[in-house]
């Protein structure tokens, strides 16, 4: 699951089972288009797509980079052993490689790269790439954790330099305890126990040879790769410390790096231009040999966090495709524009509020002398003050008259198990708007003064601002002063790095796979998406059981138990399922489709057809 950092309105893939943040926010010289104006617009055959949050990391599998804003770009530049079709069925991409389960007891899965599979710099993609991804996300080699200050700056860099710290965590990969076996063009992973989502456990990855070259100071790609493999196999802490630092840090950037090795690609496109906070331009990758080839030579993604601004840009011909956060004004404006194709539908993103339980703030037992019961009552009181029905009625029903409050952390409304899970978790009752009940809980907790709550959300997102205003007004009646957290870097980065300085977070999680264990990383102790200090051993044990459960009825029963614990612990609350709107200019691009999971409107790019449209250069 990725932050719809669209997230976090944040999902391609951080971990096979991880939700993504949804913000629902040296040049290769391949693009020779004409810079005919200050905006860098030209008239080459191309397509412009608007998105709501800027790209900031080429490593979408890291904790920092796990965001839809990154992965919609990486969907075009990365390839994989599989992808989802329109019906969310897994399709094996044999032009990239193959994979198969070779044993059930123990579970063994073998991946084999296609002979002509290569990166855009001409270096062959190889098992070393997957080996690095496993090492980075399994947690096997980490010896230290990163600590940050209010601005997200690392405060224990000395310890990180001496130890091994990969900024990644994936429960599925952590089930692989033994070092994978490499045999020629293949790599085999042996799991320590059965895993229900083994088929989607490995997807995208970074180029091992680039990481090794930068980390180990070796210029020859093959020699660098060999040294990386040896370091992993030998558990060489000195080499792994350098490798981990490169994997975690080097691929995070907000403009085009001077080192073009930092954006080599193995997919249909590669980055050509990247101007901070404005746009990224992708061009067809001439080294790509797979089946899903680029049909439009140049794709530019332009950032605009204002939904109506995206509509106006589409109407003015500045962009050709938009997937803005939907509002009644957005939908009305699009329907009134006759030359556009506009479609609506639910997205696999849901809005929610999570509470910090380990930052010394109002929801942390430390603020009450270690009294966990008092902190729990304050959390419960705050959740009872959030006007979920009002938010849905005023902001969502104008777009979807059938919209309803979502009452599940893990299951999408309309799914076969939704009624079972939501009906038994207690959320509808315990988190219904109840100002008097909230006041009573605060009184029981001995709270006599207004409780200050710093709420993190995207200040550029109109709907989030409206939600904040409704929450703040309602919570004030119960005894809470809710104020916006002042974003230090960008709100998505602050979500994971500035955890001491906000008390609650309002954002969306977007599904990027159909994995039943997708929510594991959100709620497990130390999970990649658990930014809040939440820990419950029963929840951890239930997710252990879920990993090996293959019966859908058993899976639903486990998730129902997990959610009951989350509600009882007042982890946070869910609000609504995102109403989606997609619009494009059919004279500029056709064959546009969209998935309910990430990458939404970027899906099926290999079937796009386009004409001459403006493009950044």
UniProtKB/TrEMBL annotation:
Keywords: Signal. Transmembrane segments: none annotated. Residues 1-25 form the signal peptide. InterPro entries: Peptide/Ni-bd, SBP_5, SBP_5_dom. One of its GO terms (biological process) is peptide transport. The keyword Signal applies. GO terms for molecular function: peptide transmembrane transporter activity. One of its GO terms (cellular component) is ATP-binding cassette (ABC) transporter complex. Residues 100-514 form the Solute-binding protein family domain. PANTHER family: MONOACYL PHOSPHATIDYLINOSITOL TETRAMANNOSIDE-BINDING PROTEIN LPQW-RELATED, PERIPLASMIC BINDING COMPONENT OF ABC TRANSPORTER. This is Peptide/nickel transport system substrate-binding protein. It comes from Luteimicrobium subarcticum.
């Amino acid at each position: 699951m990725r932050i719809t950092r669209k997230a976090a309105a944040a999902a391609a893939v951080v971990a096979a089972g991880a939700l993504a943040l949804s913000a629902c926010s040296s040049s290769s010289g391949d693009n020779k288009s004409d810079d005919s104006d200050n905006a860098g617009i030209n008239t080459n055959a191309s397509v412009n797509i608007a998105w709501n949050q800027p790209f900031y990391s080429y490593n979408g599998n890291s904790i920092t980079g796990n965001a839809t804003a990154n992965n919609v770009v990486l969907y075009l530049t990365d390839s994989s052993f599989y992808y989802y079709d329109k019906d969310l069925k897994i399709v094996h991409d044999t032009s990239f490689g193959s994979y198969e389960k070779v044993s059930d007891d123990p579970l063994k899965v073998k991946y084999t790269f296609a002979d002509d599979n290569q990166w855009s710099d001409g270096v062959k993609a190889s098992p070393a790439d997957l080996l690095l991804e496993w090492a980075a996300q399994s947690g096997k080699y980490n010896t230290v954790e990163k600590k940050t200050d209010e601005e997200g700056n690392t405060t224990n860099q000395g310890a990180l330099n001496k130890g091994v710290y990969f900024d990644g965590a994936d429960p599925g990969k952590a089930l692989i305890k033994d070092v994978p076996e490499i045999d020629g063009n293949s790599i085999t992973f042996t799991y320590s126990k059965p895993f229900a989502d083994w088929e989607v456990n490995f997807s995208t990855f970074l180029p091992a040879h680039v990481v090794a070259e930068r980390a180990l100071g070796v210029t020859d790609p093959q020699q660098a790769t060999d040294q990386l493999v040896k370091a992993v196999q030998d558990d060489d802490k000195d080499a792994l410390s350098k490798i981990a630092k490169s994997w975690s840090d080097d691929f995070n950037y907000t403009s085009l790096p001077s080192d073009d090795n930092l954006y080599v690609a193995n997919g249909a496109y590669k980055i050509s231009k990247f101007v901070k906070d404005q746009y990224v331009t992708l061009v067809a990758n001439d080294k790509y040999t797979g089946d899903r080839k680029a049909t439009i030579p140049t794709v530019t993604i332009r950032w605009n966090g204002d939904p109506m601004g995206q509509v106006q840009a589409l109407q003015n011909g500045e962009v050709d495709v938009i997937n803005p956060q939907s509002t009644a004004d957005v939908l009305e404006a699009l329907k009134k524009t006759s030359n556009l194709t506009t479609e609506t539908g639910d997205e696999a993103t849901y809005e929610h509020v999570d509470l910090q339980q380990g930052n010394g703030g109002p929801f942390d037992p430390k603020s009450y002398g270690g009294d966990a019961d008092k902190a729990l009552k304050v959390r419960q009181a705050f959740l009872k003050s959030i006007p979920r029905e009002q938010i849905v009625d005023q902001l969502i029903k104008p777009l979807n008259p059938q919209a309803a409050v979502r009452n599940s952390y893990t299951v999408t409304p309309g799914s076969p198990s939704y009624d079972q899970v939501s009906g038994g978790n207690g959320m509808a009752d315990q988190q219904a708007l109840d100002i008097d009940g909230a006041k009573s809980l605060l009184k029981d907790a001995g709270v006599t003064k207004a409780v200050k709550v710093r709420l993190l959300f995207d200040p550029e997102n109109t709907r989030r601002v409206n939600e904040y205003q409704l929450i703040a007004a309602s919570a004030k009646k119960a005894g809470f002063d809710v104020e916006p957290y002042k974003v230090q870097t960008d709100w998505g980065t602050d979500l994971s790095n500035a955890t001491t300085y906000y008390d609650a977070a309002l954002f969306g999680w977007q599904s990027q796979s159909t994995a039943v264990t997708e929510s594991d990383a959100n709620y497990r102790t130390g999970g990649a998406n658990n930014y809040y200090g939440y820990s419950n051993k029963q929840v951890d044990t239930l997710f252990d059981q879920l990993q090996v459960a293959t019966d859908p009825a058993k899976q639903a029963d486990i998730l129902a138990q997990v959610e009951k614990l989350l509600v009882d612990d007042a982890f946070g609350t869910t609000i609504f399922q995102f109403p989606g709107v997609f619009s494009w200019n059919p004279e500029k691009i056709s064959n546009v489709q969209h998935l309910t999971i990430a990458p939404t409107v970027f899906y099926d790019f290999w079937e796009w057809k386009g004409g001459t449209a403006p493009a950044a250069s």
